[in-house]
Fold each of these.
Amino acid sequence: MTNRFLIGALTAMALASCSDPQPNDQQNTDAASTEKVVNVYSHRHYDVDKQLFADFEAATGIKVQVIDADDDQLLARLAAEGANTQADIILTSDAGRLGLCKQGGFLQPITTKNLEGNVPQHLRDPEGNWYGLSVRARVFAYDKNKVKPEQLATYDAVTGPSFKGKLLVRSSENTYNQSLVAAMIARNGRDAALAWCKGVVANMAREPKGGDTDQMLAIGEGLGEVAIVNSYYAGKLMVSEDSAKQKAKAIIAVAYPVIGKDMGTHVNVSGAGVARHTKHKDNAIALLEFLTSDAAQSVFAKGNMEFPVKPGIAVAPELEAFGNLVQDQLDLSKLGENNAEAVKVMAEAGWK
């Protein structure tokens, strides 16, 4: 689904999603609220999530029912279902998409002492519509035999002439790239973001294709020297025993670029919020709080190579080996607010 179609669908259907329940709907809601179940609409597709949901079921007796789809499909489904949705929690792997969920009226504000204590302010919606659950940094994976880490201190570095024809990146349809550009707009302005996108396009080693891991495998094949990827993909590569990944694994290192002077590395979150029309609100809040607990945060870190949102939780050794991550403190709600402009900027730059 294209972003333009998605935004049109959200605009056309948002009113239906915000309509108040009718009397019969309210009776059904009252009955459903006593059920020991929580329905999760999820874009995440990791085995670690299955473990976390099983742990929650064992701890609470509340059954977790999951509907999987990609993030844009979930948004379209929520718009179509309106007040009749079965969703209790909406879970995605991008703060920009969480912002679109908020804009579409699919979430409701929730504030609890545990959630606000566990999730730092810049990693959650200021009004409590969603909370980050795990962090991933948008980093450079590079061929350590050909590139020195000091060449990759900033995101702007890869737009210079020394990386002409050497840069690997996935398409502009990718939400992580859209959110990176959205963050640049927030931090440095539209003109600077456009200049960066044009520099990326000018230095591409090939037309964008594949996922983050595919970009790193291309480095292993000598098709490029630097790739823009999420940190957890790089971490997973380092522990992979897959024979097809060994060439890339042997030569790749990771650099944490900064997004601007006195700023850190751009980060994004997997996060979740309570659905506006949830029938199991207490259960949904209980699951959210569980996912930000010490035990769950350790599972995110060790099981999926993601950085915990909760301070004080140990990071996976493979990520520690990449160096010290200094997170940019940008309010991540800006990613959703700037998503549409980011898509326009990338198109203007010719990023396919």
Amino acid sequence: MKLLKLVPDNTNIDFMRWRNVAVVVSTLLTIGAIAITLWRGLNFGIDFVGGQVVRAEFAQPVHIDDLRARVERLGDGEASIQSLGGEKTYQIRLPKPAGPEAAANQVVSQLRQMIVTQYPGAKVNAGDSVSGKVSEELAANGAMAIALAMLGIAVYIWWRFEWQFGVGALLTLAHDVAMTVGFFSITRLQVDLNVVAAILTIIGYSLNDTVVIYDRVRENLRKYRKMSILPLLNLSLNETLARTVVTSMTVLIALAILMAIGPQVVFGLAIAIFLGVFIGTYSSIYISAPVLVWLGVKPDSFLKSNDGEKVVPRDDGAVV
């Protein structure tokens, strides 16, 4: 049986021909995404703005979509419902209404009444309030987790390769995160802990693509010492193109199906990763590779530490 090939063998695409155009467009889009995020802010969910939390135990299994529809018909705002180990126990979170504490108590009473009436035998505990202060700390911790993940990854790449590769990886990750956050600011999709998890996933995926390309670049730097840097980067990108395209396509297909027919509660997670994989695939080619050129990586950049061989670079970066 003939194997399906999404990318032909021995491709010779001149990716670096469009590197300046791609970086200018990417820079403008990134600046725009940051500006829009600062201007409009994000539509934070209950995880970050606080609200009322109750725990309900049902006598019979309850489908989460049915429960969500009944809760949202109360008109108390968009609910966050989480299963606690099965279809009989759920944690329900509702936005905290404006006004005095009595308004929050009324929301909990209304929810409790609906559940015990429409689900005979159900038990609902007393409502707990998630304060704004706790939510602010949660948002700060989420942002700190993302920042530390990016910094740790850049340090690892720096140690594993050279400092130019670490800077390239950090710029690539910053581009991917800024674009994804900007998308959520424009669309006003809710940002909750699932989206934070999605951004951390995007960082890991984008890094994986970047490391694969950087590893091939490093191998070719040692192998083709007489090749100038631009053809060498094109060769490295073409050699890893099949792996990049196949991996991204399979992940995107799975996420597209999840967005189309998956439960609503994971839509934000799925669309964030979908967008991140698409952007990460692009940036691993048109951000991470051109950065090496601008930071002065040449075929002789790492030869001294390997074999001490004396080399003479030409003006175009090739070693003779």
Amino acid sequence: MNSYCLQVVGDYACFTRPEMKVERVSYDVITPSAARALFETILWKPAIRWRIRRIEVLQPIRWINLRRNEVGAVISTSNVQQAMNAGAGSLALYVEDERQQRAGLFLRDVAYRVHAELDVRTGEPRQKYEEMFQRRAGKGQWVNQPYLGCREFAADVRLVDAAAPGPVPIPETRDLGWMLHDLDFGNSASPQPRFFRAQMQAGVIEVPAFGEAAA
């Protein structure tokens, strides 16, 4: 199975810890689910699934406190369904009424190399999707703008040769604690998070298979 590597750079990032309910606090490094989303900005189809295998941290972990204006509400799903059934309805959300100021602890000056494998869940040939991905990544074509946790934190992403010499990961080893691996979409109505114990060894985090993550 081919492995692909994306080199990712950004000024700011926020991979929000789910246990923080009021203020946003980022994990120390990019999570596998956020890394998967970067691959999906290049190619996503219902038939495929990206499996993140390794994360290399290329810049020292730096933090910044920011206070931002956010919208504290979302449009109700039930209101959307009622409007769809009725063919009319009010779905307006007034930003001035819902605006709230929140502080956050974010990452700054981040750079990673993320390695992933392409899993085809149907009987279709893998080569078809591998060629699509390489063609799109080579041309810099995105389904949407790649971002680092929050959509306002844009990422510079490019496909690199995983076997070629590249930037050296930071010389740091530490236990990063429990980290979100990804969501289990087995029940699409209620996706459940799964976690793993992230160990950074000389700037490299080996990501276990999704089936080995704890619910």
Amino acid sequence: MNMYRSHVLVCAGAGCISSECKSVQNALIENININGLSNEVKVVETGCMGPCDLGPVVMIFPDGVFYRKLKPEDTAEIVTEHLLKGKVVRRLLHQAGENSDQAVTFDQLDFFKRQTRIALRNTGIINPESIEEYIARNGYQALGKVLSKHSPQETIDFIKASGLRGRGGAGFPTGLKWEFTARAAAAPKYVVCNADEGDPGAFMDRSILEGDPHSVLEAMAICGYAIGAEKGYIYVRAEYPLAVERLEKAINKALEYGLLGKNIFSTCFNFDIEIRVGAGAFVCGEETALLASIEGKRGEPRPKPPFPAQEGLWGKPTVINNVETWASIPPIILNGPKWFSNIGTNTSKGTKVFALAGKINNTGLIEVPMGTPLREIIFDIGGGIPNGKRFKAVQTGGPSGGCIPEEYLDTPVDYDSLVKLGTIMGSGGMIIVDEDTCMVDLAKFFLEFVQEESCGKCAPCRIGTKRMLEILERIVEGKGKVGDIELLEELSQCIKTSALCGLGQTAPNPVLSTLRHFRDEYEAHIKEKRCPAGTCQALVAYYIDPKACKGCGLCSKNCPAEAISGEKKKPHVIDLTKCIKCGNCKDKCKFNAVFTS
């Protein structure tokens, strides 16, 4: 085995790939070769490191120096100064703000130093296509431990004692689900990984699959041993081609190494895994719809009970967990259930992965202990709101969740606290919105998503959400009527109590939570024909403040309707009869002279 004095980790998560990290990686390799360092320095392609807005990013070990927003032309300086002379290239370091110190190593960034990584322990650290690197990080030791030292029931007891709850959204105790399936009399039994991540703004599961696929395979095999199953399926959406590619390679390598297949670790335990690629329907995130899709049927839910633990795949007992849940299993086996249960809160143990998106400075992937306050997540780790804007709300749980306003920023994030605020944990998507976001329009966005993704099997979801969407469309167009709010509430309660599956039952949540916390915005739209956020086109007009306008002309140059006029260095004006309310003038103005009413 070759020994290298330095490893250069290049983030190759989906975000950095879109930022052309491959060009940076190729340039690094070229410059390393030019300087004769190919036997001393190794370039490693990893999964997502987390801070997506800083990409392409590179970490250089053993010191952990972190470089951000790299271009191919930066790599020559990194090689000649850092790798040859040992001098950090300071201009490529991250600085959180003008008055902040530069962060030299990754653990000096607020983004990293406040995290506790369990499910993400290997993502961004190892080459996901190298089983040797996974094994070097204690990979497959947990599987070996249960096969050699523990009975199936002891393995289930480990998971029960840890307090791990499903990270896919429902939060059901994982160990209990395993136990119910193990006790079911029918055979064969199956293990399924739900990798059909469909929430807007969510990319937690995709990043784990792309960055650490073996952690999921190992955990599924552990579950197979615990419940008496020999077959597993990973259901992953077709929009994740890199995840599918890396999963296929991981499965083949595990089979080659004897870590999947027959007589694993020279025991009588057999376990095999297949991939099923789904077309990307949101409803297939619901477990019974997902199982139907694996069977080759239309992806539609069915009533429960019976639950999958009794009658799942092909009517047989089945454990189904999502990617993050699976990735948390091996560390629990290795470190013990007490270690895991000491992290988090009394009712929500361990850590949770979140995808930060929307109006926030540090977008990306993070993992924090359960119970971490929203304020710490959004402002200390996420870096707060861009451009000096005011925080307005955070949407958790995607289309099944709800909005949390500013007054609840100190709420600890766990399953029960979020439910009290009218939302849910969901799979971990967090969409942050600022003062410029209209909450009625945001609720309409999620209803549009639900309408497009409804499978249509039950009338409450198919027709009820359609009626709700029509009311919301009327309101944002300035055609809302007195009584619309009450009608939305009535429809919401009807759908929640009568829809067939969990997705339909939670579809009204974004409307109910925005009504709960931002009812005044609905009333302003309906009674005053006014959008307080100034974003609903039908209800706003754009004006220029003559005192603030410097006459730079940027607004008129970017107006597609030629509705703005004025002499250079003198206040400009907008002709409201020509204005198409596109908002370009407001976006382009450097002096905040454009305002809406």
